[in-house]
Amino acid sequence: MKHEVRRVLAAFAIISLIAGCSESPGVTAPAVSSGPSNRLLLDAPAQVRVVTRDAPLSAPVSASRLIGFLGGTISLPEAGLSVVIPPFALTSPTTITVTAVPGSELAYEFEPHGTVFRVPLLVTQQLAGTSAYAGGLLATNLRAAYFADAMDLDQLNGTALVSELLGTSINTLNGTVSFAVRHFSGYLIAAGEDGGTQ
Predict the structure, then answer these.
(1) Is 186 within 8 Å of 106 (Cβ atoms)?
(2) Is the pLDDT of residue 38 over 80?
């Protein structure tokens, strides 16, 4: 139990550090902040280019966990995703479910839909084996984006309709992208300038 609390508090400290670094000019670290702001609500849904997996998922991959006041972590190792729920993010114990959408796109559905958190969650995605690597180099112009429904994803063309863009922190040393989530529905990783809006 003590080990779990320490791990959650350490994750919370990382969230605070990321938030602090994204607004502090001149900070040097292996993490690269992409995008002009942490959060951008769009006036109307916009199309973005989605980062894709080299090997598509043939079926949804899900994990659920009952999360209490002390927070916790949910991982989808098969999809390269982890979600850290910090202490006091929830007002009551809640079963959290994370599902990787089948197909090539790096897209996830989070439940219960509509849940709002008092403290932001930290979502981290491994980028090895994705289109974020070009010629062995990691792209640094990635954004996270909110989508309302799986029907907004276009797996054939590698695009999606989104209504919110989120700033990211990219760790070039371990090949991950992280972003903060304040409410639940669907999130994806978008590529290109300012999330790849077209």
Answers:
(1) no
(2) no
User: How would DSSP label each residue in 31-68?
Assistant: EEEEEEEEEEEEEEEEEEEEPEEEEEESS-EEEEEEE-
CA pair distance 55, 61, nearest whole angstrom: 14
| DSSP single-letter state for residue 174 | T
Taking alpha carbons only, the member of 154, 71, 74 closest to residue 110 is 74
Domain-wise residue ranges, the chain: 2-196
- Using CA atoms, how far apart are residues 195 and 198, in angstroms rounded to an integer? 9
Summarize pLDDT for 77-98 with one digit per residue, the tens: 999 999 999 999 999 999 999 9
pTM of the model: 0.78
Least Cα distance to 126 among 83, 182, 183 occurs for: 83
Amino acid (1-letter code) at residue 149: D
Q: Looking at domain 2-196, which of 2.60.220, 3.80.10, 1.10.3470, 2.20.28 is its CATH number?
A: 2.60.220
Structure tokens at 145: 């984006």
Tokens for 173, please give them.
């040393």
Report, as an integer, the average pLDDT of 45-61: 95
* 153 touches 99 (CB < 8 A): no
